[in-house]
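DATA CLASS: polypeptide
GOAL: derive structure tokens

***
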Amino acid sequence: MNGRLPADKLKQLHCGGYLYVDAARSWLAMVRAALEDGIFLNLNFAIDAYRTVAAQLKRFKRRFEEIDATKIDPDASQIQVEFNGKTWQLKDGQKYAEIPG
């Protein structure tokens, strides 16, 4: 399950983050191929790579707030998602974060 991979299935990258070993192999091959074409690819931050469920949840809760599902405005422009049986709305000025797991 996403966010619950054992440590032996992860490979650390130069940014300090981790990727699933097969994804890391593919990522590094793509980086090398891009360099041959004069293109530089980079994961800038560890948070851009693999995240545990706990890290995903922390990021999600920073960006979303729980709302009362009975008071949802169907014409509202804010993004709303269902998570753990509750309705959450993206906070003003925040970028979308995927639901944990």
Summary: The chain is about 25% helix and 20% strand. The CA atoms of residues 27 and 93 lie 31 Å apart.
